[in-house]
């Protein structure tokens, strides 16, 4: 048959199709009893019309997929085909079922080779997603097993089919369509002599499934991020800097952003409020800057609530209870909560001139717009941190940074883009620009803020969602689709997180333990 002669149409099965369906089922299932009686098919169409899918060629029925809804917990455990059938061969459909069960897929012998079965399977998957059902289950016959039963057990046969050393017309097809063998079913269909009564319980997981309680939470899948490429400039007062901050927060909120992001140490020009002599003492200058942090935290939290936006407050210097200085990023939630992430890796310049200490805790923060992590500048150059955050199901990684030269910027940029690819997450890179010669260590800066994505078909071809003009004060907006992350992690061209060889290597937070969504001190003997 020529491809030019095909006129295919995918639609739902109707009761008027039964005469053609009977001919098709009798031909395909001649070895196990042939077609279902008409009243069985009519009842199935009445109870679950969307699940009965047909392909026709010029009104000739050439392919069918029959499906019911079932309770996942019941049918993901051992069962028999008869558990799906009631009195008078009524197929038992559960209208409240949280999974679909694939009963039959039939393709007319004259139309095999056109991948019509794949079309039917894809239609089932789309239906499963649209109904927010947990999975598709199926009891799969293994009709070629009788040829190997004398030398192979059913499990050995299944393993060889999975390794493509044996071809089975049903199991090989189902494995090629992303179904996984969950268990072996015994006496599933006793009259199936070719399979010798055995079947595989196959499962395709709906990675977009949300339990009812999560659906009611109305968790967003579309997140808008606004990042401020902030210009460092001389300032006359604390109020002037806060006024500039509020201007940008107001603007980002007006565009319904879920996050407003600022760069590392964005309030550093406040060091210029000291007299010139004091500024020359770098340790005194940075401690002077730390004196404004509490005021900034209070004001930024107020803005987050007032403008209904989560604020990633770049980073600021905090004087700890131990009298040591830390570089801290604050996350001001729009509900008034404030959380923080310390910079863990301190650059030689920070350590030498400002005596900054590295923090000792790594967090993933639960927000109303996804699970987020924060790595401050130099931290993003250490891939272990991004991977530890990815292990806690991070969606978005924020990287506030401050670099002076282009080569320093490119170190941060290339590492940030690598984190997006290897951890299958979004990365928001936000830096500062402008030269302030009057303040020591603020003389030159280079930045091009960007938003990076995983590198796959669902994302931009260069894995760059948006970016600013270099060295220009401006804002960028990006809409992040969290659903795409779910899909790429499970079904991408490559699946970096899934394919890690944990049998060869692992990654641990040394002598620490997981606790409340963060890595915090623990008893080494318990790890």
From TrEMBL:
Domain N-acetyltransferase span(s) in chain numbering: 8-167
Enzyme Commission numbers on file: 3.5.1.100
Signal peptide bounds: none
PROSITE patterns given in the database record: CN_HYDROLASE, GNAT, UPF0012
Gene3D superfamilies: 3.40.630.30, Carbon-nitrogen hydrolase
Protein family membership: Belongs to the carbon-nitrogen hydrolase superfamily. NIT1/NIT2 family.
Protein name per Swiss-Prot or TrEMBL: (R)-stereoselective amidase
Native source species: Halomonas chromatireducens
């Amino acid at each position: 048959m020529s491809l030019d002669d095909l006129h295919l149409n995918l639609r739902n099965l109707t009761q008027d199709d039964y005469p053609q369906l009977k001919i098709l089922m009798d031909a395909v299932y001649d070895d196990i009893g042939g077609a279902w009686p008409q009243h069985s098919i009519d009842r199935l169409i009445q109870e679950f019309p969307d699940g009965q899918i047909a392909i026709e060629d010029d009104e000739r029925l050439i392919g069918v997929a029959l499906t019911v809804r079932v309770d996942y917990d019941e049918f993901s455990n051992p069962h028999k085909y008869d558990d799906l059938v009631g009195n008078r061969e009524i197929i038992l459909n559960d209208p409240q079922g949280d999974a679909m069960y694939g009963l039959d897929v039939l393709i007319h012998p004259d139309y095999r080779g056109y991948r019509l079965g794949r079309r039917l399977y894809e239609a089932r998957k789309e239906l499963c997603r649209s109904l927010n059902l947990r999975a598709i289950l199926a009891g799969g016959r293994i009709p070629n097993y009788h040829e190997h039963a004398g030398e192979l057990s059913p499990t050995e046969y299944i393993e060889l089919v999975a390794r493509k050393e044996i071809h089975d017309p049903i199991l090989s097809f189902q494995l090629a369509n992303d179904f996984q063998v969950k268990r072996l079913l015994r006496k599933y269909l006793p009259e199936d002599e070719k399979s010798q009564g055995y079947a595989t319980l196959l499962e395709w997981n709906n990675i977009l499934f949300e339990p009812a309680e999560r659906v009611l939470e109305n968790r967003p899948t579309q997140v808008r991020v606004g990042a401020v490429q902030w210009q460092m400039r001389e300032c006359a007062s604390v109020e002037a800097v806060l006024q500039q901050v509020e201007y940008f927060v107001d603007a980002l909120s007006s565009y319904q952003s879920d996050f407003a992001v600022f760069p590392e140490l964005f309030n550093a020009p406040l060091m210029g409020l000291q007299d010139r002599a004091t500024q020359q003492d770098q340790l005194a200058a940075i401690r002077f800057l730390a004196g404004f942090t509490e005021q900034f935290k209070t004001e930024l939290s107020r803005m987050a609530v007032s403008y209904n936006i989560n604020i990633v407050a770049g980073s600021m210097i905090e004087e700890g209870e131990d009298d040591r200085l830390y570089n801290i990023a604050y996350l001001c939630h729009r509900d008034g909560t404030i959380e923080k992430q310390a910079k863990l890796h301190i650059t030689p310049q920070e350590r030498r001139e400002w005596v900054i200490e590295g923090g000792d805790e790594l967090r993933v923060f639960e927000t109303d717009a996804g699970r987020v992590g924060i790595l401050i500048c130099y931290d993003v150059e250490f891939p272990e941190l991004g991977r530890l955050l990815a292990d806690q199901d991070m969606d978005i990684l924020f990287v506030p940074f401050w670099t002076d030269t282009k080569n320093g910027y490119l170190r941060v940029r290339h590492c940030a883009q690598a984190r997006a690819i290897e951890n299958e997450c979004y990365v928001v890179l936000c830096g500062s620009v402008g030269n302030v010669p009057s303040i020591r260590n603020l003389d030159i800066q280079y930045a091009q803020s960007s938003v990076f994505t995983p590198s796959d078909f669902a994302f931009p071809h260069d894995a760059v969602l948006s970016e600013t003009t270099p060295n220009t004060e401006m804002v960028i907006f990006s809409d992040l689709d969290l659903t795409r992350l779910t899909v790429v992690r499970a079904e991408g061209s490559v699946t970096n997180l899934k394919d890690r060889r944990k049998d060869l290597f692992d990654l641990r937070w040394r002598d620490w333990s997981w606790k409340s969504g963060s890595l915090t001190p623990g008893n080494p003997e318990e790890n």
